Amino acid sequence: MNALALRLDEAQQRATAIEQLAEPxxxxxxxxxxAALIERRLARGETLTGVKMGFTxxxxxxxxxxxxxxxxxxxxxxxxxDGGTTDLATYVHPRVEPEVAFRLGKTVSGDLxxxxxxxxxxxxxxxxxIIDSRYQDFKFSLSDVVADNxxxxxxxxxxxxxxxxxxxxxxxxxxxxxxxxxxxxVGSSAAISGNxxxxxxxxxxxxxxCGAELLAGSILLAGAATAAVPLEPGCEITLxxxxxxxxxxxxxxx
Length: 254
Ligand code: OOG
Ligand code: MG
Fold this sequence. Notes:
Elements: H1 2-14, H2 27-43, E1 48-54, H3 58-64, E2 70-75, E3 85-86, E4 95-104, H4 114-120, E5 121-131, H5 142-147, E6 152-157, H6 164-167, E7 174-179, E8 182-188, H7 197-209, E9 219-221, E10 229-230, E11 236-241, E12 245-251
Bound molecules: 2-oxoadipic acid and magnesium ion.
């Protein structure tokens, strides 16, 4: 497991793709590789900032040809400031996708109801996720992508909003992602498991299965509402989420 984690970690650090894993792992083994990969990042001084859910929308499952929910880990190194710039040379073949993020107000793990998930979150924000598979051609099996920390590479968060009326209903917010002012994806937060708060329920369950918790104060990316779009140099990417506002970042000119 450590050898696989090392290969994936080096692929990320060198921004060079590797072949899909030759030995098929089961999902539990893939989460062990993911944990070893995160340990390597923490040993370099990165800190945990939260978790992300993946394949919560039919659009994503269809784009990537997989059919189960996955769970990955975010660190401070992945954060890109709202309005900031990211250098594409640090990624293999990055894509961007429109999301909603929650901040946890208390530590949770295991079985939660939707109303317990609502009580567990204390803020919501528009979010863009930069995903970057370390596998050639962005192709992988479900266990391959879990081992690769679910393609986690970057994230941009808008300002946290904590008004109860916003948190009480994030089920059907219009979401528009644009590149250089041109709309590239239009969707709704309803595409995220029918309700983005369902991602809190699912993440708490998956965390417990991995012997972990979702920590108070940490971020949860609920998953993309639409398919992801490849990032090109010299672009400005914006996301507008109904009632939550807009965020953006730029990619450096090549
Ligand atoms: C895996 C990550 C999926 C999402 O929001 O569905 C994900 C991938 O597509 O490479 O982050
Ligand atoms: Mg995502």
